[in-house]
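Hey, quick one: can you model this chain's 3D structure?
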Amino acid sequence: MTTLVFVALTRSAPAGGYTAQFPDLPGLTVDGADIAALVVAAREAVQKELQRLTDEGLDWPKPAGIEAIAAEPGVVPFLVDVAVDDTPVRVNISIGERLLKRIDQAAETRGMSRSGFIASAARTALGEKIGAGTGADFDAIARKLQDEWSVLGRKITDSLGPDSAFNRSVNDIDAKVTETIRKTAENISAAMARRKEAEARKDDASPADAAI
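Sure thing. Here's the predicted structure for all 212 residues.
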């Protein structure tokens, strides 16, 4: 996996909430009712934009460093990191016509592109597993999110001052978001522990069942 980091320029939206644009991804704009929603929407939008570029056979832009971005007064830059498999490389392959149709049908059913489906199938064939999260994973996410809020909060304070509405909003949701993730991690850890206990009881009961 590779992590790409794009700069987002955010400001208060006239109708409420916040909006962000990406200098390296022209035309891409996201909105959020609060900072947490904006960060989530920003990551999702960047991933979809990179997928669109891939599907259209276009190269990904090289992200500029935050120091190279000149922000206007009242605009706060922050970093949006997205995890991608790898920078795509265009290849030419030969494949049977009927198999290609089946691939396209399966990809469409799953809401995937042809390239994405083939890449996913290749990863499965290579034995890679995706999505087996653990409590430790969520703890790491919580720590990462806390670090992100701290960095973003400092940038906002430096840009707008400690008493700005924008800064107060970040401070208000900081603890709420981190606490929500912490509780989620605890719930998942507890569920995994219960599942292991149930499997252990099942294994212990198997010899007796076999004897009957």
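One thing worth noting: Helices lie at 35-55, 97-109, 114-125, 135-160, 165-211.
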